[in-house]
Amino acid sequence: MATRKYSAWRVGSAALSLLLATATMTLAARQRRLEAARLAEQRLEERRLELEELAIRRKALAHQQRMHWELLARAIDDPSLAAVIDTYDKNIPAEKRRQFFYANAWYAHLFHLYQASILDREELYTRLREFFQSPLFREYWEASKAQRASLNESSLEAGIGRMVDRLVLDLDEADTDEWWVVGNPPSD
User: Fold this and answer.
1) Residue 71, pLDDT score
2) 3-state secondary structure (DSSP) of residue 97
3) Could you say which DSSP state residue 150 is in?
4) DSSP state letters, 72-83
5) Are the C-beta atoms of residues 106 and 131 closer than 8 Å to each other?
6) E runs forming strands in the chain
7) Which helix or strand (DSSP H or E) is residue 19 part of?
8) How far apart are the C-alpha atoms of 75 and 98, rounded to whole Å?
9) How confident is the model over 109-142, as pLDDT tens digits?
10) What whole-number distance in Å separates Cα of residue 82 and Cα of residue 74?
């Protein structure tokens, strides 16, 4: 009789051990799933915040560009207002300085498109290469050299300015009339 009780106890003990092991594994698996779900939710929240920040940044850049254009448009239309921001050589005729303001508006527009990630660096380069077919745009670029020299050398705007300087040099040195193939468009 004692042997039967011992055997029953052993079988019951083994079943209980198996049940406990299964429950432990089930709980551990559940914990892993909960942790994975929590991490996935955290990553989604971080991504949502990143996208929200990007949207706010793009909205601010769009507002900045509108303000820049509005201010430049006023300066183009009213020479007395242009005098406030006119840092060009005073020997340059007023009409040409107004054209420079307009060229600056286009350059700033393209720069803001790049800054807002609407254009990549290669697309910016391609569009600028086209703009620099205009002698007036080239004159504007030369006349604004001192303004660019005052930029923080490590700034994005200064880096783009150096890229444009190389582009202008490549265009000047090109042995072809096919300007659209001149230079090496950079990639991001």
Assistant:
1) 87
2) helix
3) T
4) HHHHHH-HHHHH
5) yes
6) none
7) helix 2-77
8) 8
9) 999 899 888 899 999 999 999 999 999 999 999 9
10) 8
Residue whose tokens read 């921001």? 85
Cα–Cα distance, 46 to 80 (Å, whole number): 49
pLDDT at 179: 76
d(CA 38, CA 9) in angstroms, rounded, equals 42
d(CA 77, CA 67): 15
Rg (CA), the chain: 33
Number of residues in the chain? 188
Q: Dump pLDDT digits (tens) for 81-98.
A: 888 888 888 898 988 988
Flag whether pLDDT at 188 surpasses 70: no
Report d(CA 166, CA 127) in Å as an integer. 15
Give me the DSSP letters along 36-80.
Answer: HHHHHHHHHHHHHHHHHHHHHHHHHHHHHHHHHHHHHHHHHH-HH
